[in-house]
Amino acid sequence: MKNMKIKLLLSISFLLVVITANAKQTAPKESLWYSQPAEKWLQALPIGNGSLGGMIFGGIQKEQIQFNESSLITGTTSIDGNAKPTVGNYQPFGDIIIDFGNLRAENYRRELSLNNAIQTVTFSTGGVNYQREYFSSYPDKVLVANFTASKKGSISCIIKLKDAHNGKIEMSGNKIIATGTLPENGMQYESQLMVVNTGGKLTVENNAIKVSNANDMRLLLVAGTDFSKDFSKDFKGEHPHALLKKTMTTAATKTYSNLRKAHIADYQNLYNRVELNLGTTPEKSTLDRLKALKNGTKDPALEALLFQYGRYLLISSSRPGGLPANLQGIWNNEYKPAWYSQYTTNINVQMNYWLAESTALTECTAPYFDWVENLARVNKKTTDPKLQTKRGWIAYSTNNIMGGPSTWGLHRPGSAWLSQHFWEHYAFTGDKEFLKNRAYPMLKDVSGYWEDHLVEKDGKLITPDGWSPEHGPGKVEGDRTPYPGVSYDQQIVYDLFTNNIEASATLGEDAAYRTKITEMRNKLLGPKIGKWGQLQEWMEDVDDSTDHHRHNSHLFAVHPGRQISPLNTPEWTKAALVSLNARGDVSTGWSTAWKINIFARLGQGNRSYDLINALFGKCILENLFDTHPPFQIDGNFGYTAGVSEMLLQSHIKKDDHYILQLLPALPDAWSKGQVKGLRARGGFEVSLMWKNGKLDSAVIKSLLGNDMEILYKGKILILKTKKGEVIKFNGQLVRI
Ligand code: FUC
């Protein structure tokens, strides 16, 4: 008997050891939670499947799900014979309104889990526990809301589908269908809401569905338009009705648990690739933590949460087959959102994708590439004389989903900047087919424009008629006076030619052409250092040291370009730092996020961290959306990219391999931490642990079998790798 007891005790303690060991290995639980419902849209929490998005208020008596579908815009294309193409505005689609009568709540909590992309609302009343779950499924193309209660017959409500454009509402059994046509461009749209209850009764009343005394209830929502990504059809497709009906019918045959499982599996396949641990999570609501952080309380775990939130938001707003994340991702409740909530090409749409490769979300870039290629097709075909070019193509600053521009601000280097990510995608993934069929053709085409337009002066090649977004010398906001040799243009063309050269060399194509472009690149007027030690923004030394403009255009060469770096160009690096410090830390959301990235590239971790504080202080809203102001999602994406640049950089190439810089800009504030699964150019998956501000260990998996060079605090290690090989190092870069 005694023996048995000892055995039992031993096995229990063994079990406990196993459980604790496993618990240590599990990913941090990442969620945003609040102890009250949202009263305003910017307190609601987002869900999305790349195109169908919802903002959940979590109301107790009145629940509201404001929803969007990414293609509903009032703009037009410039190739459909339209004399005056308009960018239009990204539109709200509608709302699901659920009236629960005078339901009361205790122990209320609403929570968005980043681990499984499910939002929950829980509360209790009169001994009944209520739980709601919300998600938008990419595999099933449907937004799902599920309502349960701990006591049978406890769910009673009236459900309405509100169309944001006064469309026709029709009832069909347990479905509400809203259809309409936008007067501005004739775009046809439809949404369908289905209510499925277990137990109780479902009746139809005045364009609403009434559910009485149900045990549980599920809502399914689908929405779409007749927009098509097919350029050859002028972006006009079929009426969405048939497809929506099919999608709904298929989803309705699946159980809630199957819909949920498929959603989680799809989402986690992307999300779980990267973990970031910067500290323990305090047991406080996100709102309380945010307030405390704004008041100076350290909460590195919240900084890690915002990093993962950026990844969550990209997975939720940009998936293959859909459209790229716009200025607000896919979430918008305004008829005239700021800057049309479309795509701005002088930083914003590019910034949306900075995090995609380095934080292992490469699949999410697919809509971006499709969109850029369509924009190129549109702008090559348009009759707008300002866009006409002999070779290549150029763009306006702002464009919609079908290439319809806002004709303010022709932006010549926009196409070159947009094509940068085509090369980056290859650099990270090694996808040769993509390089051959999409990246290289794009880079070569756009290079053609600059081959035709660069002007030779005193032995240097100069970009004509440029501007430094979005101002002129002398701090004149929006000044469009054209200047030659603007640093922004020069640096972007340098980047374009470099990517073009590397692409053709990798493919072993066009040797003579490559020599020509290399000669041209080497003749480009390079960065200049001005009289106060700054990196000049203009060709003439006219920079004003009190210029705090939000755009850091003349620092493109540091980030996202790679012409200037502490490793290769120390003098320019020093000058870039002078310029960046002079720009000041106080700015708009995306500008602050950009500065986190630039300081990181300059090896200034503590300065990056100052900017993180500035971002949290001024630009992060209650639901952790970034604000310009107003709400603009690029700051979220740029922040995530910035944090990854602080922990790992791989943009510098030596011979034929990339240099992996480990913890190149670690701030003192993150003295201890761990990151898993970041990606580096050349195809590497990198996990790092650090303690007391120093690297403790690194695990690097070679995904492609390329050579790699590791750099940590001046120490260098060069290695050949095999595809699939996992290499471990200690903090001294000794293999373990
Ligand atoms: C550019 C920026 C603005 C804003 C807009 C969407 O024009 O200068 O600050 O972010 O894009």
Write a structural description.
With 736 residues, this protein is α+β, with helices and mostly antiparallel strands. It is 32% helix and 26% strand. Mean pLDDT is 95; it is low at 8-25. Strand 6 (106-113) and strand 7 form a beta hairpin. The strands form seven sheets. It has a nine-stranded antiparallel beta sheet with strand order 1-6-7-8-9-16-13-12-11, covered by helices on one side. A seven-stranded antiparallel beta sheet has the order 2-3-4-5-10-15-14. Strands 17-28-29-30-33 form a five-stranded antiparallel beta sheet, covered by helices on one side. Among the domains are: 2-25 and 662-730, Immunoglobulin-like; 36-270, Beta-galactosidase, Chain A, domain 5, CATH 2.70.98.50. The protein contains 16 helices and 33 strands. Bound molecules: alpha-L-fucopyranose. Alpha-L-fucopyranose is lined by residues 327, 339, 344, 348, 470, 550, 588, 590, 628, 632.
Essential attributes:
about 725 residues, alpha+beta, Immunoglobulin-like, Beta-galactosidase, Chain A, domain 5, nine-stranded antiparallel beta sheet, seven-stranded antiparallel beta sheet, 16 helices, 33 strands, about 30% helix, binds alpha-L-fucopyranose
Secondary structure layout plus pairing:
Elements: H1 2-25, E1 31-34, E2 45-48, E3 52-56, E4 62-69, E5 94-99, E6 106-113, E7 118-125, E8 128-137, E9 142-149, E10 155-163, E11 168-172, E12 175-181, E13 188-198, E14 201-205, E15 208-214, E16 216-225, H2 241-253, H3 256-271, E17 275-277, H4 286-294, H5 300-317, E18 343-344, H6 348-351, H7 354-358, H8 366-381, E19 395-399, E20 405-411, H9 414-429, H10 432-453, E21 455-457, E22 460-462, E23 471-472, E24 476-477, H11 487-507, H12 511-523, H13 570-583, H14 589-601, H15 605-619, H16 634-647, E25 648-649, E26 653-654, E27 657-662, E28 673-680, E29 684-691, E30 694-702, E31 708-712, E32 715-719, E33 726-730
Parallel strand pairs: 27-31
Antiparallel strand pairs: 1-6, 2-3, 3-4, 4-5, 5-10, 6-7, 7-8, 8-9, 9-16, 10-15, 11-12, 12-13, 13-16, 14-15, 17-28, 18-19, 19-20, 21-22, 23-24, 25-27, 26-27, 28-29, 29-30, 30-33, 31-32
Helix pairs in contact: 5-16, 9-10, 9-11, 10-11, 11-12, 14-15, 14-16, 15-16
Bound molecules: alpha-L-fucopyranose.
